[in-house]
């Protein structure tokens, strides 16, 4: 059940797509993923490399991409979140299914586990889902609620949330911190100095030799090496 | 009642000044106690706790200035000092100094203090800067929300300080009732509950520490903090369970406990800030003066040239302005020597007495004191660097370069401070979080040319290189920096492999240096220079004079004297470096005590004070040998005070001996290389 740290929204989308395309097969080809998401193969290759690094997928030299156990679990979790959120939006709040679908696509990446836990409790209490919390649709799409619009065909748009590492932002750019994946003492130091999820950061500059970088956060100037900034994921504000 | 008695027994209320680095603690401390502690505009100026006293309404109050800290987590040595004092020494009142411009981050520590149940009074400092930025912070509102006194202050102008101390005295009378409780969310609260009841069931621990605070620290795995308390069964048991608790919570929240705790605390703080901070203008969009300066100073292309230019300007300033003043003092000492001499003669003093006063005291000490103006100016320049806020930028700008050599940008601050004196510079390394970085920075610091080497340079440069004074002296300083960096690199490569360091540093806004703090800088260093001249150097000079006149009947300061014999013993070692005379060797041997003594010893040996000294040296030395001698003086063995500082800060005789040993070898090697290569090039 543990969440693997630092999986960006787009990575989550990839996982979800791979999970879906995998159904019943041994692995998925890069071409299929690219076609499904309607993006260049090169980008897919890059993303897969990252997923491999994080131990979420396996791939033998340009062969099919296969989800690892952790990858499968993560993908299933995102999918579960999606379904629960969609169910809640449609059946409890009475949101138009199309809008609900789109919103669920966005929310599934950023919703906090705490909110998710409450939402699940609520859905169980009101008999919207089974008492073990399962929506039971990871195998069979058809069983997923009655207002099932063709979600799988469209997929969740990759551009839904622009998640970047903090060091990838340009000077002058702004972002909201989504996640801090640094480890050990430096992680705690950053958290205590205000680098917490939900906080806005602005890139103020880069030092003459190209490292460290300077940021404005909570109204003061903080400098971090690129290596540290790379461990902070932000949603870029455009 | 018991509380009051214990206060009186210890001689009054004990008040600690705590807060984020650079929030103005020391400035306030100086205002309260009338002390003159070092203030500077960069995080990490104060690295040890300083105590002072004041009286309020006839009542003694003990004030303790602490190093700045962002949290009670304590990553570096200086932060640990502050944390340990607050947590374990339990001052009666903690005055938490908060930078009003930067309220959210500053309140993080406040929250921790309040959670701990400390008796806190907030000093809302830098109100002037907040006003200039069109930010209003509602002190009363903050006070009501937190349930503790909040006093607006401007420490630099002594505003609000009296009100603050009134609040402190009042707070000391009534113990604070309850620790602050932050709601950490349902799952976390449940676990906290369990841990707290376990702690309570355990034993008397909860009387000394708030159980909830202990529980939170336990869950976040702040082991360094717990270590201090850990020889306790209950805690040991809980520590074993900590991983399991943390893991369960991680599953519930999808994030680790540290993040949850930090997030909840900041959540609480941003709630406070919303009610308390009123921004009149959209601050974010306005470029402050500081931002504008930074655009230039840390600019991609200008950053490095500006850094070098500033260094160059610092030395030019020190020497071009200082030299005319040297002449005045020289004249003064010449006159003093002559007047003293004739006075002693007319009083019928023996030739020996006269020699003691004129050659020994006036010649020895005078030849050192002559350099007072240079030293004052140098410290003036350093104080401008420190107080303006440039120090932190130097670390920022140089980090990449230093990092590529395996060092750390923050090492640059102690290195720059080393130009003044290596002792405080070595202490300043406490702000380096990483142990290896810190050790390397300590070991290479003596290579930075401190102000005590100045007299040596000025003397020899005056004798041989007066046309290129600035350049020659600058070359020595640069040699020191280059050697420090090179040696640091070697150490990193061969002694301390691996271990990554991090660079997380606040860049404070630029400030106009205050007269007071500039004065403190200059006063502090020059008074210690004069004190040194009056104590160590005086004593050494007397010893040297005696040695130069023994055994009885020997011609003063001749090679047959004990001094001459000591020098002659060592001299052959320095022959390849071009200064194999017994005079040079004797000066170097005694220079270990304090580097100014090198000049003092030469003063006695040549039996003249400064002005004549230049002439004699010009006649007896060659320029190349003089340069080699300066290189040796720059690099060889740190002075006794610095050796002491190295021992204290490394806490190891091994490393101390290593620092002494390597620098001796390095100094000799470089001096020989300079002399031999120079001779080959026909410069001899
Ligand atoms: N404008 C303004 N500047 C202040 C005020 N109080 C302190 N300063 C400046 O802030 C800087 C830091 O002051 P210090 O007293 O050294 O700060 P500190 O909290 O002791 O810092 P550390 O020892 O590094 O933890 C100095 O440049 C002071 O002149 C204030 O009330 N207003
Ligand atoms: Mg201080």
- Report the principal-axis shape of chain A: globular
Poorly predicted regions of chain A: 136-154, 157-161
Helical residue percent of chain A?
40-55%
Total number of distinct structural domains of chain A: 2
For the record, the count of structural domains of chain B works out to: 3
Unreliable parts of chain B: 1-9
Number of strands of chain A: 8
**What structural class do you assign from the helix and strand content of chain B?**
alpha/beta
End-to-end Cα distance of chain B, whole Å, is 80 Å
Number of helices of chain A: 9
| CATH topology type of the largest domain in chain A | Arc Repressor Mutant, subunit A
Please give the count of helices of chain B: 31
Q: Determine the fraction of residues in helical runs of chain B and give it as a percent range.
A: 55-70%
Rg estimate of chain A, integer Å = 19 Å
* SSE pattern of chain A: HHHEEHHHHEEHEEEHE
Strand content of chain A: 15-25%
Can you name the CATH architecture of the largest domain in chain A?
Orthogonal Bundle
Properties at a glance:
heterodimer; A: 238 residues; alpha+beta; Arc Repressor Mutant, subunit A; SH3 type barrels; 2 domains; six-stranded antiparallel beta sheet; two-stranded antiparallel sheet; 9 helices; 16% strand; B: 684 residues; alpha/beta; Rossmann fold; Helix Hairpins; 3 domains; six-stranded mixed beta sheet; two-stranded antiparallel ribbon; 31 helices; 9 strands; 65% helix; disordered N terminus; binds guanosine-5'-triphosphate; binds magnesium ion
Summarize the structure.
The complex is a heterodimer of chains A (238) and B (684). With 238 residues, chain A is an alpha+beta fold. Helix content of chain A is 43%, strand content 16%.
SSE inventory with pairings:
The complex is a heterodimer of chains A (238) and B (684).
Chain A: H1 9-22, H2 30-37, H3 41-53, E1 57-59, E2 65-67, H4 69-92, H5 97-110, H6 113-125, H7 151-154, E3 163-165, E4 174-180, H8 184-192, E5 200-206, E6 213-217, E7 220-224, H9 226-229, E8 232-237
Antiparallel strand pairs in A: 1-2, 3-8, 4-5, 4-8, 5-6, 6-7
Helix pairs in contact in A: 1-2, 1-4, 2-3, 4-5, 4-6
Chain B: H1 2-9, E1 13-19, H2 25-33, E2 50-56, E3 59-65, H3 77-89, E4 93-99, H4 103-116, E5 120-125, H5 127-132, E6 135-137, H6 139-146, E7 150-152, H7 161-173, H8 186-202, H9 205-208, H10 211-219, H11 223-227, H12 233-253, H13 257-276, E8 277-279, H14 289-297, H15 303-346, H16 351-369, H17 372-388, H18 390-404, H19 412-418, H20 422-428, H21 435-444, H22 454-464, H23 469-494, E9 504-507, H24 515-549, H25 562-574, H26 582-591, H27 596-605, H28 610-620, H29 623-635, H30 640-650, H31 653-680
Parallel strand pairs in B: 1-3, 1-4, 4-5, 5-7
Antiparallel strand pairs in B: 2-3, 6-8
Helix pairs in contact in B: 4-13, 8-10, 8-12, 15-16, 15-17, 15-23, 16-24, 16-27, 17-24, 19-20, 20-30, 21-23, 22-28, 22-29, 24-27, 25-26, 26-27, 29-31, 30-31
């Amino acid at each position: 059940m543990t969440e693997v740290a630092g999986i960006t929204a787009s990575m989550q989308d990839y996982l979800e797509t791979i999970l879906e395309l995998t159904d019943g097969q041994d692995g998925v080809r890069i071409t299929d993923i690219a076609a499904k998401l309607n993006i260049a193969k090169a980008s897919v290759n890059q993303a897969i490399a990252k997923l491999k690094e994080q131990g979420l997928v396996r791939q033998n030299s340009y062969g099919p991409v296969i989800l690892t156990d952790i990858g499968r679990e993560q993908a299933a979790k995102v999918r579960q979140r999606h379904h629960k959120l969609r169910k809640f939006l449609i059946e409890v709040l009475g949101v138009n299914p199309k809008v609900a679908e789109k919103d669920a696509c966005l929310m599934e990446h950023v919703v906090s586990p705490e909110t998710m836990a409450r939402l699940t409790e609520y859905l169980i209490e009101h008999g919207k889902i089974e008492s073990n919390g399962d929506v039971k649709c990871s195998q069979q799409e058809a069983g997923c609620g009655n207002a099932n619009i063709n979600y799988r065909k469209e997929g969740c748009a990759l551009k839904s949330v622009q998640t970047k590492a903090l060091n990838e932002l340009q000077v002058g750019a702004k972002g909201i911190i989504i996640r801090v994946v640094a480890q050990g003492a430096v992680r705690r130091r950053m958290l205590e100095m205000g680098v917490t999820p939900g906080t806005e950061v602005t890139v103020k500059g880069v030092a003459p030799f190209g490292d460290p970088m300077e940021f404005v956060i909570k109204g003061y100037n903080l400098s971090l090496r690129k290596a540290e900034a790379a461990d902070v994921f932000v949603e870029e504000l455009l | 009642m018991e509380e009051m008695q214990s206060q009186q027994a210890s001689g009054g209320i004990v008040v600690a000044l705590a807060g984020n680095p650079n929030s103005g603690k020391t400035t306030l401390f100086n205002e309260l106690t009338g002390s003159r502690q070092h203030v500077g505009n960069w995080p990490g100026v104060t690295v040890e706790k300083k105590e002072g006293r004041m009286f309020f309404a006839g009542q003694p109050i003990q004030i303790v200035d602490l190093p700045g800290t962002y949290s009670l987590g304590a990553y570096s040595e200086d932060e640990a000092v502050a944390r340990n004092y607050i947590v374990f020494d339990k001052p009666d009142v903690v005055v938490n100094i908060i930078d009003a411009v930067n309220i959210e981050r500053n309140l993080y520590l406040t929250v921790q203090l309040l959670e701990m149940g400390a008796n806190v009074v907030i000093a809302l400092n830098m109100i002037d800067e907040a006003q200039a930025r069109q930010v209003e912070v509602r002190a009363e509102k903050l006070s009501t929300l937190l349930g503790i006194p909040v006093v607006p202050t401007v420490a630099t102008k002594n505003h609000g300080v009296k009100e603050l101390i009134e609040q402190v005295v009042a707070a000391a009378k009534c113990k604070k009732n309850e620790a602050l409780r932050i709601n950490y969310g349902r799952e976390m609260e449940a676990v906290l509950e369990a841990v707290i009841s376990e702690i309570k069931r355990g034993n008397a621990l909860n009387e000394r520490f708030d159980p909830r605070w202990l529980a939170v620290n336990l869950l976040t795995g702040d082991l360094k903090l717990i270590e201090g308390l850990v020889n306790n069964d209950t805690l040991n048991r809980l520590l074993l369970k900590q991983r399991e608790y943390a893991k369960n919570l991680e599953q519930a929240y999808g994030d680790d406990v540290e993040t949850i705790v930090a997030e909840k605390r900041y959540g609480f703080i941003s709630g406070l800030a919303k009610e308390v901070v009123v921004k009149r203008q959209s601050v974010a969009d306005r470029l402050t003066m500081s931002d504008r300066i930074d655009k230039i100073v840390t600019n991609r292309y200008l950053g490095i040239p500006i850094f070098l230019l500033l260094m160059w300007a610092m030395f030019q300033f020190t020497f071009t302005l200082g030299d005319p003043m040297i002449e005045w003092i020289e004249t003064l000492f010449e006159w003093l020597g002559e007047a003293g001499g004739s006075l002693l003669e007319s009083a019928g003093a023996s030739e020996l007495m006269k020699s003691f006063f004129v050659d020994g005291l006036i010649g020895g000490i005078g030849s050192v004191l002559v350099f007072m103006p240079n030293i004052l100016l140098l410290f003036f320049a350093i104080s401008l660097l420190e107080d303006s806020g440039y120090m932190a930028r130097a670390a920022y700008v140089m980090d990449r370069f230093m990092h590529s050599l395996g060092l750390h940008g923050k090492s640059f601050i102690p290195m720059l401070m080393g130009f003044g004196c290596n002792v405080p510079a070595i202490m300043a390394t406490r702000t380096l979080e990483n142990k290896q970085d810190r050790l390397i920075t300590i070991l290479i610091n003596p290579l930075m040319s401190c102000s005590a080497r100045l007299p040596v340079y000025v003397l020899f440069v005056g004798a041989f290189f007066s046309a290129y004074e600035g350049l020659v002296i600058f070359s020595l300083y640069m040699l020191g920096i280059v050697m420090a960096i090179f040696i640091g690199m070697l150490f990193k490569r061969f002694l301390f492999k691996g271990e990554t360091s991090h660079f997380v540093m606040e860049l404070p806004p630029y400030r106009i240096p205050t007269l007071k703090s500039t004065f403190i800088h200059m006063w502090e260093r020059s008074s210690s220079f004069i004190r040194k001249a009056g104590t160590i150097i005086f004593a050494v000079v007397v010893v040297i004079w005696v040695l130069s006149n023994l055994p009885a009947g020997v011609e003063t300061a001749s090679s047959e004297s004990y001094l001459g014999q000591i020098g002659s013993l060592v001299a052959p070692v320095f022959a390849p470096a071009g200064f194999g005379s017994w005079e040079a060797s004797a000066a170097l041997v005694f220079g270990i005590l304090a580097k100014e003594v090198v000049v003092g010893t030469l003063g006695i040996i040549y039996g003249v004070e400064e002005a004549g000294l230049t002439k004699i040296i010009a006649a007896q030395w060659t320029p190349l040998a003089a340069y080699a001698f300066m290189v040796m003086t720059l690099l060889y063995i740190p002075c006794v005070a610095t050796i002491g500082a190295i021992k204290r800060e490394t806490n190891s005789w091994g490393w101390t001996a290593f620092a002494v040993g390597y620098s001796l070898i390095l100094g000799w090697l470089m001096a020989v290389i300079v002399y031999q290569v120079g001779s080959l090039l026909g410069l001899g």
